[in-house]
């Protein structure tokens, strides 16, 4: 998905750490929060696997079909749960974007991780309009998530046990960390789509 091995390693590490934190979040909270955290962990680990530099590991041809199938199932699951929560619509878009990237990279001329944007898109059958729409969605999502993170961070630093407020929650249940993970995955998805 990218040209530089260093950026691939950094993106892979960032997505893997985000996925691991989401797995920790899946142990606490209400059923809906745990379900969302599991979906975000799958997305983080899937993005980490896609970001591994091709010089280290180039997946076999069937690997991209496996990615597409896995995230196709995740998209159907998100569609089912979106009846109850609007946040699952974001998971639907994310899973669908992962299916799209896997299909593009599996196509002829996709060149796995090392395909260059214009050549791979034209040869692999990627649609510039769809890529542009996904880029616009993630740009708005990242800006919106970042804006939502600012008030949460300001509110949590103002209170706390020392100021007479409630004691701080465990680090796995902190809302600003969940928002930061979503922001990280949004930025990572934007970067992966840019280099498609």
Provide structural commentary.
- The longest helix is centred in the last third of the chain and has 31 residues, at 128-158.
- The protein has one domain (5-194).
- Residues 113-125 and 159-165 have low confidence and may be disordered.
- Helix content is 72%, strand content 0%.
- Helix 2 packs parallel to helix 4 (87-106), helix 2 (31-51) runs parallel beside helix 7 and helix 3 packs antiparallel against helix 4.
- The protein is globular and about 45 Å long.
- It is mostly helical and 196 residues long.
- The chain contains seven helices and no strands.
Number of structurally distinct domains: 1
The arrangement of helices and strands along the chain is HHHHHHH
Beta content = under 5%
What structural category characterises the helix and strand content?
A: mainly alpha
Mean pLDDT: 80
For the termini, the CA-CA separation is 6 Å
Helix content: over 70%
Structure, briefly:
The chain is an all-alpha fold and 196 residues long. It is built from seven helices and no strands.
Question: Which tags fit this structure?
Answer:
about 200 residues, mainly alpha
Strand-helix topology:
Blueprint: H1 5-25, H2 31-51, H3 61-81, H4 87-106, H5 117-124, H6 128-158, H7 175-194
Helix pairs in contact: 1-2, 1-7, 2-4, 2-7, 3-4, 6-7
